[in-house]
Specification:
Largest sheet: 7 strands, mixed
Radius of gyration: 21 Å
Mean pLDDT: 80
Strand content: 15-25%
Strand order of the largest sheet: 3-2-1-4-5-7-6
Number of strands: 7
Order of helices and strands: HHHEHEHEHEHEHHHHEE
């Protein structure tokens, strides 16, 4: 949803523009205007910063643990020379790169691969991360993880992704993307992610999950409206060109109520548009799938209503 100087406006989607979207609603994110709108609202998701902070805390803990174990193994084999261990990460459904950006800030020597099925999103990510691209060997890939061969790695096919001995990753993250594929594909994708991880590697999925009741969905919608409204007010107050809003400010509560109602309408509209592409699964079920695959330390690390951060760690070799 767009945030304008006067009030937030719902994203307009022309259903006749691309008939393919009737068969796959998630293709709506390939529209430049929808990609831009999603970028504008992402920072207003309730507790978005806290979710990413938690993600980084988990990654740092297990990455340090992995490095320490590798160093111990080297010493056991008589190698006392400390080798530089560079983190390699994969961002699935990267969007405009918010998770990648934070990973690069926290781990400035890391190298990353960003995959998204929306070219407009990839273009936004390239622009946002252009200061990192050369130094961090960033690889931007147009790929659809609803299919098996989503990752381009020197001509690898689906079998190579499932049973590969080539480039693997220390960290794989995804943010509000995997919920667009059927549950059967989620499970096979999680298996592929497990295979793509180095031993000791971390997978974290920041995700929209199924709500146990409609009441919980309603509570989240209210929290989203509050967060969106607060963000809009902050933007208005900090904008150097906010003179257009002075008239509304002078009108007091009626104007504020009008803006609040527009926020609520925009949230309802955009949630309904996204709902067409959603195939939601309970976080408890998805954690069980990860355990069945072989992930360790599986948990839902952070949850607020229908948003959850969950994942696990591929066990270290010879670890108990």
């Amino acid at each position: 949803m767009m945030m304008t100087k006067s009030a937030p406006q719902p994203t307009k989607v022309d259903s006749d523009k691309d008939k393919d979207m009737d068969d796959d609603p998630s293709l709506v994110y390939q529209r430049p205007e929808v990609a831009e709108a999603f970028v504008n609202i992402r920072d207003t998701i309730p507790m978005a910063k806290e979710q990413i902070d938690t993600m980084i805390r988990i990654i740092r803990h297990f990455h340090i643990q992995k490095i320490q174990q590798q160093q111990q193994q080297q010493q056991q084999h008589g190698n006392t020379t400390k080798q530089m261990i560079t983190m390699r990460w994969l961002d699935l459904g990267c969007g405009d790169g918010p998770l990648a950006n934070r990973l690069l800030q926290e781990f400035p020597e890391s190298h990353g691969t960003l995959v998204d099925h929306s070219q407009p999103m990839l273009d936004l990510a390239k622009t946002k991360l252009q200061g990192y691209s050369e130094k961090n060997d960033l690889d931007f890939q147009l790929g659809d993880f609803s299919k098996g061969d989503f990752l381009k790695r020197g001509g690898d096919d689906d079998d190579d992704i499932n049973n590969n001995n080539n480039t693997k990753f220390d960290v794989i993250v995804s943010g509000f993307a995997i919920h667009h594929v059927p549950d059967s594909r989620k499970r096979t994708l999680y298996q592929q992610i497990f295979n793509l991880l180095e031993p000791g590697g971390v997978f974290l999925n920041m995700e929209h999950v199924a709500s146990p009741t409609s009441d919980i969905e309603d509570i989240f919608e209210g929290a989203f409206c509050d967060s969106m409204y607060n963000a809009y007010q902050q933007r208005q107050s900090s904008s150097s060109s906010s003179s257009s809003s002075l008239e509304d400010k002078g009108k007091g509560e009626p104007a504020a109520a009008k803006i609040r109602s527009e926020v609520e309408a925009a949230v309802k509209h955009d949630l309904s548009v996204d709902a067409e592409a959603n195939i939601l699964a309970p976080v408890e079920a998805q954690c069980e799938w990860l355990r069945d695959i072989g992930f360790a330390h599986v948990d839902c690390y952070f949850k607020i209503f229908i948003l959850a951060l969950f994942g696990g760690v591929k066990p270290q070799e010879n670890s108990s």
